[in-house]
Amino acid sequence: MKSMTFVIHNENGLDARLAGMLVKECIACEGRITIRKGRKTGDGKTIFNVMSLRVRKGDTVEIELEGGPEERDCQRLTEFAELNL
Q: Measured between alpha carbons, how far is 58 from 65 in angstroms, rounded to an integer?
């Protein structure tokens, strides 16, 4: 299992557009992806789970990857986060 932590810098937080883009990236990954904000967690491949986390600007989120080629998926999600979050 690998995990990454990011601080959200996007002015609108993880709004519907950005959450949709994140979910697309997660779906392209083979393993299970969990997104955590505080005590709340959600399946990274489900838009409703991601939106229910209510991630705002300045919030810290943790993305956990389990299974599949974790190293490759971690790199993919890290690049996405650095460009968009």
A: 22
Cβ–Cβ < 8 Å for 62, 78: no
**Closest alpha carbon to 41 in 3, 82, 78:** 3
- Greatest CA span in the chain, whole angstroms? 33
Q: Are 4 and 76 in contact (CB under 8 A)?
A: no
pTM: 0.92
Cβ pair 75, 36 in contact under 8 A: no
Q: Could you tell me the two tokens for 18?
A: 């950005």
CA separation for the pair 31, 69 (Å, rounded): 7
Torsion angles phi and psi, residue 59, rounded to 5: -75, 150
pLDDT digits (tens, 9 = 90+) for 55-81: 999 999 999 999 989 999 999 999 999
